Amino acid sequence: MRVLLTGAAGFLGSHLAERLLKEGCEVIGVDNLSTGQRRNLDRLVAYPGFRFLQVDVARPLEVEGPLDWVLHFASPASPPRYLKLPIATLLVNAEGTRHLLDLALRKGARFFLASTSEVYGDPLVHPQPETYWGNVNPIGPRSIYDEGKRYAEALTLAYHRAYGVPVRIVRIFNSYGPFMDPEDGRVVSTFIVQALKGEPLTVFGDGSQTRSFCYVDDLIEGIRRLMEVDYPYPVNLGNPEEYRVLELAQLVKELTGSPSPVTFLPLPEDDPRQRRPDITLARKLLSWEPKVPVREGLSRTIAYFKELLNP
Ligand code: NAD
Ligand code: UDP
């Protein structure tokens, strides 16, 4: 199997690349290093089947030789990062998705899109099934990401319908684990790093908004299974274990044994009030459900960040 994977230096892309390399696949990792980390590539270059291309996939892309799969993970993903890169975020999801679909079409490859629970916006239906159309502010600050992904989904299904490209789409709910960027501002990594450094944990708003947190190994297993199933429509993957953000802060304090206080900062504009995946479809289609409870996954992630901060 020969696979092209964009976003290979990122958190999720590097996990899936490593999984495929372990299975004996040849992986061409593509990344422009805009939000990715070089240390994520360090562990991939150890495999003889890995090759890296530093390329912006918002531009047309050609690679030599056959491809079986084109997997598109490239996109800024944390709110602070995509808010700093608004045009690049729109372009990698619009133009980038188009170029990668064209590549898949030329090579006769299967195409995968890493979409997001953000397509549901600030959801009025809870938990969110794939059939929910969402509640997205199309011109708010988060729209660059939400609408970028919604367009990417529409384009992916258009290539499937018009040209018969075999496609897979996952709507990923908040995922966490080792090799997250400690500085990209996502809530799990931020709270853990703050707790380990003894700094205040920054809860936005009153912390009553909810998220549901999926350990990365569970997510990767779900994606791996979906690649083998002939289903072109979006599938939710996430862990329905739902926490208020303030509860998460308290749990991180407990698991790290940190004396850090909790401090409250303003809630960002359009921050979704609640989010929890309905994973009925993934259960049926993939015989998949998350195995790692949040306490266990957080403990593993804390061990990773402890080592990273004090090698
Ligand atoms: P990440 O920021 O760690 O990784 C994204 C990678 O894409 C980075 O290495 C970055 O340098 C690269 N990239 C960005 N723009 C690029 C471009 N134009 N050309 C080439 N490379 C580019 O984020 P992540 O958490 O690994 O997310 C990966 C994908 O999964 C994203 O598409 C994201 O929207 C999606 N997703 C992630 C989560 C999550 O909880 N982690 C949730 C929903 C969706
Ligand atoms: N959040 C927080 N403190 C932080 C970072 C995030 O309270 O330092 C909150 C954020 O407002 C949101 C939730 O945690 O309600 C999840 O944020 P994240 O950026 O991880 O992902 P999102 O689901 O918003 O894309």
From TrEMBL:
It is a single-pass type II membrane protein. Keywords: Decarboxylase, Glycoprotein, Golgi apparatus, Lyase, Membrane, NAD, Signal-anchor, Transmembrane, Transmembrane helix. InterPro entries: Epimerase_deHydtase, NAD(P)-bd_dom_sf, UXS-like. GO terms for molecular function: NAD+ binding; UDP-glucuronate decarboxylase activity. One of its GO terms (biological process) is D-xylose metabolic process. It is found in: Golgi apparatus membrane; Golgi apparatus, Golgi stack membrane. Its cofactor is NAD(+). One of its GO terms (cellular component) is cytoplasm. Residues 3-229 form the NAD-dependent epimerase/dehydratase domain. PANTHER family: UDP-GLUCURONIC ACID DECARBOXYLASE 1, UDP-GLUCURONIC ACID DECARBOXYLASE-RELATED. This is NAD-dependent dehydratase.
